[in-house]
Design a protein that fits this description.
The protein has 212 residues and is α/β, with parallel strands linked by helices. The chain contains 8 helices and 8 strands, in the order E-H-E-H-E-H-E-H-E-E-H-E-H-E-H-H. Helix 2 runs parallel beside helix 3. The radius of gyration is 16 Å and the shape is globular. Bound molecules: D-xylitol-5-phosphate (DX5) and zinc ion. The site of zinc ion has 6 residues, from strand 2.
Length: 212
């Protein structure tokens, strides 16, 4: 079954607890948390204090997506803040092997993410150590962008190369693009605006989860 991961970036930040409950009650599996540093991507989002504050209000699996230049330096603080999985970018400045090991040493799931221009072959050396791959289907940095179909071939390639690693897809996911991703082999659908803009997200989450 496909897992759904609402991206908190699209929530109403004045009511974070209610927004998280809304997704939990609608059947979300994970909560996707986008951390941006204004350097790796041209935007700032939120950081450690927010992750720490929302940890006690939700039992959802916290799926952190670090869009930051030096993820290795922040593994411990995000682990302490309550992350369940930490995904970082292959294009960041941290050594991938060292960073994956640091995440595993804290007992968390480790993921690597690729920007749209990075070929999937670049992940081959790390596949045996990864729990999760996050394929970006938009340029990272902002919610509400249109899905880039080039992500589909990447998902196909990576699913074939690493059938036991969870493949997650992030950016522009809605009822039209989600089936294309699951057909290609995606296991986890990250969706921000599609889910948080809904009056009642339950139907939308059911639609996404029904895909396999
Ligand atoms: C973009 C983020 C995404 C974003 C997705 O850098 O990684 O998680 O919130 O938003 P939508 O679903 O609106 O494209
Ligand atoms: Zn994300």
């Amino acid at each position: 079954m496909t897992l759904t991961a609402p991206s908190l970036l699209a929530a109403d930040f004045s009511r974070l607890e209610d927004e998280i409950r809304r997704m939990e009650n609608a059947g979300a599996d994970w909560l996707h948390l986008d951390i941006m540093d204004g350097i790796f991507v041209p935007n700032l989002s939120f950081g450690v204090p927010v992750v720490e504050s929302i940890r006690p209000v939700s039992k959802l699996f916290f799926d952190l997506h670090l869009m930051i230049q030096n993820p290795l330096a922040y593994i411990d603080v995000f682990a302490n803040a309550g992350a369940d999985a930490i995904t970082f970018h292959l294009e960041s400045q941290s050594d991938p092997d060292e960073t994956i090991d640091a995440i595993h040493q804290r007992g968390l799931k480790a993921g690597l993410s690729l920007k749209p221009a990075t070929p999937p072959e670049a992940l081959l050396p790390y596949l045996s150590k990864l729990d999760l791959i996050l394929v970006m289907s938009v340029e990272p940095g902002f919610g509400g962008q249109s899905f880039m179909p080039g992500a589909l071939d990447k998902i196909r390639f990576l699913k074939k190369a690493a059938p036991s690693v969870l493949i997650s897809v992030d950016g522009g996911i809605n009822q039209k693009t989600a089936p294309l991703c699951t057909e290609a082999g995606a296991d986890v659908l990250v969706a921000g605006s599609y889910l948080f803009s809904a009056e009642d997200p339950k139907n939308r989450i059911s639609t996404l989860k029904a895909l396999s």
